[in-house]
Amino acid sequence: RAKEQGKNQVQFFNETMKQTVLKKTIIETALHQALENREFALYYQPQFDIQTKEVIGMEALLRWKHPQMGLVSPGVFIPIAEETGQIVAIGEWVIEEACRQIKQWNEQYGRSLPLSINISPKQFLQENLVDYITSVLTKTNVPAEQLDLEITEGVAVFNEQYTIEKLQQLKQIGVHISIDDFGTGYSSLSYLRKFPIDRLKIAKPFIDGITEVEEDAAIVASIIVLAKSLKLRVIAEGVETNEQLNVLHSLRCDEIQGYVLGKPLPKEEFEKMYFV
Ligand code: C2E
Ligand code: MG
Ligand code: MG
Ligand code: MG
């Protein structure tokens, strides 16, 4: 029995877990330098009206290029930054950089395309989020209506009342709110009638199955109907094929984002593609 327990303990901290902890420590340490060394950049992915195929907005997506590790995926470093709290400083950089870029495009092209940025749960819970966003909008002279904040269902779990108040404050200054990865998180739908939100973003996994898996198609169809009856806009994310696009079109989805019409691009390329 003792031997078994001993064995279990050894197995408890196995090779994979050691690698995971090591990787986490390395990334955490490297993240400390990343802002200072200007290793971050924003890429921009277009969002389209499904009827007209016009660009109606874009999402800013964070990219991190470490001098030795190369490109590190946000899927890897965002959860670590979220856990360590580093996401707050990184997120502030994202807000500033995004607003600077909007301002430049507004002035240069005289067009005011809405821009979505991702706000992580820890960032959303920061006391000064609303003040911070207000100050950046004022400083950069960007209209609040041009900014869309993507939050996940997860923020609702923490404290519903707090979330409602924060969202109301954000609505008051004029920014838009989207629920990112809709359908994959918080299971209760009751928040939809309490939260002042503007748009649902249907999570990619449902879109992946839309042409082959009946259940996924049914879920997507229901989300679109739900959004319409709540007077919310609805966008499908991660749309990769024309078949998926056609199904979404026939289901009367409002907007789409995905490789089929446009990948995330560095600012210069986005500009050449969609502004010039
Ligand atoms: P997300 O906000 O749901 O962003 C959509 C992700 O799907 C992006 O991955 C985008 O590049 C990818 N994508 C878009 N269309 C397609 C497609 O057709 N096919 C495929 N396979 N992928 C597609 P990315 O850029 O790797 O970002 C992953 C996640 O990291 C984001 O998911 C978001 O949760 C987080 N993230 C990215 N930038 C930021 C940021 O500035 N702040 C915070 N807090 N999180 C961020
Ligand atoms: Mg997003
Ligand atoms: Mg998403
Ligand atoms: Mg997400």
Automatic annotation (TrEMBL):
Domain EAL: residue ranges: 24-276
Top-rank lineage group of the source organism: Bacteria
Keywords: Coiled coil, Membrane, Transmembrane, Transmembrane helix
Protein name, UniProt field: Diguanylate cyclase (GGDEF)-like protein
